[in-house]
User: What shape does this take?
Amino acid sequence: VEADLVVRNCRLYVPYTMEFIECDVYVSGGRVLAVDCGEGYRIACREELNAGGRPVVPGFIDAHFHVDSSMLAPWTLARALAARGTTCVVTDPHEVANVAGVEGVEWLMEACGSLPIRVYFQVPSCVPASPFEDPGAELSLEDQLRLAERGCIALGEVMDYVGLVSGDPRLSRLVSEARHRGLVIEGHCPGLSGLDLDRYVYAGVDSDHTKLTSGNALEKARKGVFLEVQEKSLTEDVVDLLCRLPPGSYCLVTDDVLPDKLARDGHLDHLVRLAVKLGLPIEKALYAVTLAPAARMGLRDLGAVAPGKAADLAVLEDLESLRARVVFCRGRLVYRRGGAPPVEAVSVPRRFLSTVHVAPLHEEDLAIRIGAKRGTAVVNVIGVEERSTLTRWLVREVPVRDGLLRWDETGLTLAAVVNRYGRGRRALGLLEGCRVEGGAAATTYAHDAHNLIIVGNSPRDMVAAAEKVAGMSGGVAVSVGGSIRCALPLPLMGIMSLDPLEKAAAAVAEIKEALRELGYRHTDPLKSLSTLTLTVAPELRLSTWGLVDVKRRRVVPLVVKVSEE
Amino acid sequence: VEADLVVRNCRLYVPYTMEFIECDVYVSGGRVLAVDCGEGYRIACREELNAGGRPVVPGFIDAHFHVDSSMLAPWTLARALAARGTTCVVTDPHEVANVAGVEGVEWLMEACGSLPIRVYFQVPSCVPASPFEDPGAELSLEDQLRLAERGCIALGEVMDYVGLVSGDPRLSRLVSEARHRGLVIEGHCPGLSGLDLDRYVYAGVDSDHTKLTSGNALEKARKGVFLEVQEKSLTEDVVDLLCRLPPGSYCLVTDDVLPDKLARDGHLDHLVRLAVKLGLPIEKALYAVTLAPAARMGLRDLGAVAPGKAADLAVLEDLESLRARVVFCRGRLVYRRGGAPPVEAVSVPRRFLSTVHVAPLHEEDLAIRIGAKRGTAVVNVIGVEERSTLTRWLVREVPVRDGLLRWDETGLTLAAVVNRYGRGRRALGLLEGCRVEGGAAATTYAHDAHNLIIVGNSPRDMVAAAEKVAGMSGGVAVSVGGSIRCALPLPLMGIMSLDPLEKAAAAVAEIKEALRELGYRHTDPLKSLSTLTLTVAPELRLSTWGLVDVKRRRVVPLVVKVSEE
Assistant: This one.
């Protein structure tokens, strides 16, 4: 037997026994050949690396992630993830599906096939996410079953929990077909509890990655829901609970990670550090990014460095920083500190680079005309929360003058959503809790349909920002005083950049800073902006159909009542 | 929603959180509909059962079991297992495959399909177990792949670890084809360690159910071997180790259980009690017979009582006795204390009831003739161990008189293995460490080829016992002083009884007792007897080919050297 590589003097993390052992790891043909715990195996080796007693961990695995909401091209993302020790992500490509349908998903699958890290796919379960979206494409049940046959390993987050619980026949059929094919069924059920939770799980969905508290996490775990714990769920209480659960009952996931966050904090490494800081033993935290997600996803060859398993592993500087020194995936070097091998870009069909077709927007289009000269109007308003992407449904009184709604006099902010797939439909709404004083922001990165959303307190800037985004074939732009303050082009399907990580990260950071300066108070103003359109997250959202009452699944008018003076 | 059944006031064991919770469990259509933890769900129910605060557990699952080595007909076995809270076994039908090939396996699969408990199948990996067996049938690679397509979920214990490690092409291909089809690969590697273990695991086999010590269990676990812990491995040291492992790294299994043991001690319930007695917390012990085996075997709907999971559950008297009070499988009652529903027998094709075809045996056939009048002979002898089914390879000097080997003068015991599939081949051997003074025992229940083995110190009784077994179309018989002392007919393929549990259990107990009385010192003389023929277990065995040196995979002569006086 000859090995391609031996990594000597490892302090190897073994999830099966939840301990670190001193050993040499032999690799052959992309798999681990042998783990020598001081027995002095005699195996000839083509290449040798000395870990110098440093920690060696199985490559990290993210069981719930969206490649296509990272704002990065897949090849750029792959390089950035590898640098953080992540060698496998399971992605639900529902952003791309909303923009470009099955064709887009198939292109993404092909593009990801040649990446240095592993990308497994889920079948997007809800495209459109709700009947009140206006996406570039839809997935029929046939499309979804075709994707299931094409190697997808799971059904992506079943967001329409209201639909499933109430027995929506199409969704029920999809879930049951997916189960029948042995797919893992991924969930999304924020705050679901009691009998509704039982019903959701009974229908076949048995994971959740939405915001967890220790109380609902315990309820969910007891009912067989595999907990996919995001950063926003990582509180002391939740970590206390995780400490008590068997390590196969949960994992850590990142869901959506924007470039600035990825460059600054990292990926799963960041969550492990955070969890450890909150009291989770490192052995359990590592289990939650290695064997637990592998087992959950049925990836039997992944999640551990052991004979026969994939040679996906990272040599770390130390267990505190978790900084990767060298990372291998399939036995091949995918990252080396100070000299990571480049990742080749995949060619993109021209049509996926010009997906933004917006009718010209004028300031008049943004005026809200009322059938009364002067008086007040009662309006439905989206309440933006500072620390969450959930919104509240507010009702406010706004003055009317000269037949126009004077929202600008009441501290509200205007929002417009414009179809960007050439169909012309658009709608206006009002926001409270965020401001874009004397400016505007626009983006085609707006979940899940990725139409063009524009928010601002200045109609002139709203038009300017919208024009800028359209001119870039998609992206994000902030306009102040009539001129563009900053922008990030996202020409790949209107949601992904072709820039390197550092450049995209800087642009995103700049945009967030600009938004904050203009008065958009939010822990992540770009995340807030890009989810105002998400018609499956409570309570009130704006799509091209108008204001959507998420819980009752209906469109509600902007203006409820007008009182003329 | 209407439920078929509600079990109220459960103290439910939840493996996901490793705790007991008070709740009501609703069942509908064979699955758990809802688990109500005091919220007062309003669900109409057709039937109600009050658990009265007693423990309720998911039905026990045995991931490594042989239905066909239980000596019971499948329907009798199923009833006995259900009474112990076991609702699922994963069986490797290699006994039936050795007797009746693919046809036999397909019949068994069909027969098990109508049982009240779940029986999942593995593809027997080695039929014959080695080139030195002489079975009724063999499985070709094509046969095995056909079984893989017919719904088998795993490749059965790859016993020929020597073959696999040395790269036997047929076996390597089988393992890789099975992996490719997503089958779990089950192992069997007694004492394997170091680089040979790495190689075995590298080839794709990642479990082991053979005798474990804490040392080799730790080594195996570290290398990714899922530990299937049998009773013989349940020592204080091993349990100490299990306490430290994550609960997904091991399970409890029973492998072969004879009727007397099943009736007296039980099944997995017995192992749980034993493990707890040795220090394993009950929460972990229960995990090891519910969620751990289900996850290992990819049985996603089993192993827990939670919404959407199978309604396989047992109401127990208490956690100390673990005695089952009521047991459900697929939501149907399969056991109720004091009044279990009967299980219908499945019709057996006539040919499976007459599988024993032995040429008449005479006392002269048992004489060992030597090409010398008088002197001594050096002979190879099987050393029987008192507390194990492993054997030692001994070399002894035996007197020769009148051209005959006088083994009877040296404290040895004679053994004969006779082909029982009408092919006439037979061989003789000698045993040390066990006696059958003035008598003999014979059986067609002899792993893995299930030929007729006869051991004894009286050739007359050996002939009588053999005739008795042949006359019963298979079974076990003990003869003393020329007449049959006790016997158990096993007419179904020569290895399974058609009697009820109690009757078979009494017969087996009687046979063991008789063997012990006659001088067969062993913790389980019948198990010892029936494995003397197992040519894959070290060190020396007897098949119709003669004495088999297991480690070097060759036949060795009974008589090594003769010195004439």
Q: What stands out?
A: Chain B touches chain A through 49 residues (CB under 8 Å). The two ends of chain B are 91 Å apart (CA to CA). Chain B is about 25% helix and 30% strand.
